[in-house]
Amino acid sequence: MARRTFALNRLPGFALIAGITFFLLYLPILTLVVFSFNAEASMSIWGGLSLDWYRAAFTNRTVQEVSLRSLVIAVSAASVATTVATLAALATTRTAAFRGQTLIYALIHQPLMVPEIVTGVALLIFFAMIKVYTGYTGLAYLIAAHSAFCIPFAYLPIRARLQTMDITLERAAADLYATPLQTFRRITLPLLMPGILAGFMLAFVISLDTVVITELVKSAGQDTLATYMLGQMRRAVTPEMYAISTLFLLLSIVAVSVFFLLSRQRVG
Amino acid sequence: MRPLPLNHPTTLSRWLLSTPALVILLLAASGPLLIVLVYSFLSPGPYGGVVWEFSTEGWFQVFFSRDIFDDSVGPAYAHWSIFWRSVRLALLTTLFAALLGFPTAWFIATRPAGTRELWLFLVTIPFWTNLVIRTFAIQEVIRNQGLINSVLLNIGLINQPIQMLYTDFAILVGMTYVFLPLMVLPLYASMDKLDGRLLEAAYDLYASRMRVLWHIILPLVKPGFIAGSILVFIPAIGAYVTPRILGGGRHLMLGNLIELQFGQGRNWPLGAALALTLLVIVLVALLVYIRLVMRDPEREHG
Asked: What does pTM read for this prediction?
């Protein structure tokens, strides 16, 4: 049906406000990107293009250390969250309502409802108790905290993918005497893969972004890139931070782009 | 046909498959909340932590304070002013996000079908950028040697930098900036489903643009507004990073007050009680949300 272009599509001023919104959304980020290439450490003087701040960031031992720790935590937490979220999604999708379903949903979505500061405080107290009993102060606390927080973000895209998948193929495989495990490995898993990868990407980005929980749970010397930057902000700001921010931004954009491409893929 | 445990799970196997996720969530998300409740009724330890003695002092201190000389009880003004700032800034953030978000979502919803996804993508990119970096970016724009002041000074419009950083205004700008996409996305979702013929009908019947906007569009996208408001309000009321960076330590919000009790304050029971107070505010907001969503829309327009 050819739709008449409706005059209301151009509500007066709306396009202007939208334009301003997009401008405001990108102005601060682009400021960081642009001035990360400024040879001068000032916003009022442009000293020409320079990669000095990137060189400084790359050779800074602390930055190397916290970046590596961020990646280790994010990859571990996203892997754990995606694995358990896949199992949970298989159990709770494409089925009639069953006893306890609401409870499972509520638990899975809980990290989305409770403010991060409350979860952070709860984990601080709980982990402090465990630390006293076991004496262990390693990274596992942060990985566990991030895994739990990332579960809903991994779960949602996997569930969305499952809901669009036709169950007939799996039935056909079963009719042809494939064992349940074979059906899962040869049919369900390959079809579900884009959803699983999308969930992983989202969980990965969320873990990199989780700063309040990390700040409260971390032991001494366990700064991640996010908490390191938060701490640096109390001191004088150097353009080196612009360079780190720009690289961080790039990483997030790549991960989110992959997520969008994966979740747009059609089944079959 | 043979059974398919992974596709046709029984109730038992559904629970078994969900178990790993539930164990992690119970250990590292839901369960510890109960420990917070217990801790809010204990006595503070001298160097942080708690002493296992029952006490309601933590909850008492949330709202009241005792005079150190004559032990008389009065309201804890410092806490009340932080509660008020948190609620006020969270509501204002929701309002500004709606004022900017509505036209933006409408703009995206009225683009040709092929380009809408790209516009949505542009809205979400800043959202997936690290919260610390986005708040840092705002700081660099508004601080005294920042972008705005540098430009204004250079073109001679002002002689002195305008103090914007470390004010309530800075926190409001920062929170609107970081949470805006959470308003745009649900608004867009509700507009996407809007039946264009309704608007055309109204327009054909000589309704003015403002009347169509007020009487047709706004009621129809109300679910998007409600969802967007709850999505913005909850992280705003519990904000920690944005007020810490842009408020500069003097303009505290509830999140900072809570964290303070586990750091310099060394009053874990008070911190636990404050955290639960925040949780109660969020639960009330969620209940209001559920009430609004559950209300039968047919009856309203009948």
From this structure: 0.88
Contact (CB, 8 A) for B199 and B236: no
H helix or E strand, kind and range, residue B92 = helix B77-109
Clarify whether residues A72 and A161 are in a common domain: yes
CA distance A95 to chain B (A): 7
Judgement on whether residues A97 and A151 belong to the same structural domain of the protein: yes
Tally C-beta pairs within 8 A across A and B. 299
Query: Can you give the pLDDT at residue A3?
Result: 43
pLDDT digits (tens, 9 = 90+) for A72-126: 999 999 999 999 999 999 888 877 777 778 888 888 988 888 999 999 999 999 9
Q: Mark B107-144 as b/e (b = at least 16 C-beta within 10 Å).
A: bbbbeeeeeeeebbeebbbbbbbbbbbbbbbbbbbbbe
Domain count, chain B: 1
Give the minimum alpha-carbon distance from A266 to chain B in angstroms, rounded to a whole number: 16
CB B197 within 8 A of CB B114: no
A211 vs B25, B110, B131: nearest CB:
B131
Amino acid, res. A215:
E
Render pLDDT for A216-262 as a digit per residue (tens, 0 to 9): 999 989 999 999 999 888 777 788 899 999 998 998 888 888 888 88
Please state the separation of Cα B8 from the chain's center in Å: 39
How many CB atoms sit inside 10 A of residue B161's CB?
16
Q: What is the mean pLDDT of residues B135-142?
A: 92
* A166/A219 same-domain check: yes
> Chain A neighbours among B 257-276 (CB < 8 Å)?
258-259, 262, 268, 271-272, 275-276
CB contact under 8 A, A183 and B6: yes
Q: How many domains does chain A have?
A: 2
ipTM for the predicted complex comes to 0.88
Query: What CATH number did the domain enclosing B226 receive?
Result: 1.10.3720.10
pLDDT at B302 over 50: no
What's the CATH number where A71 sits? 1.10.3720.10
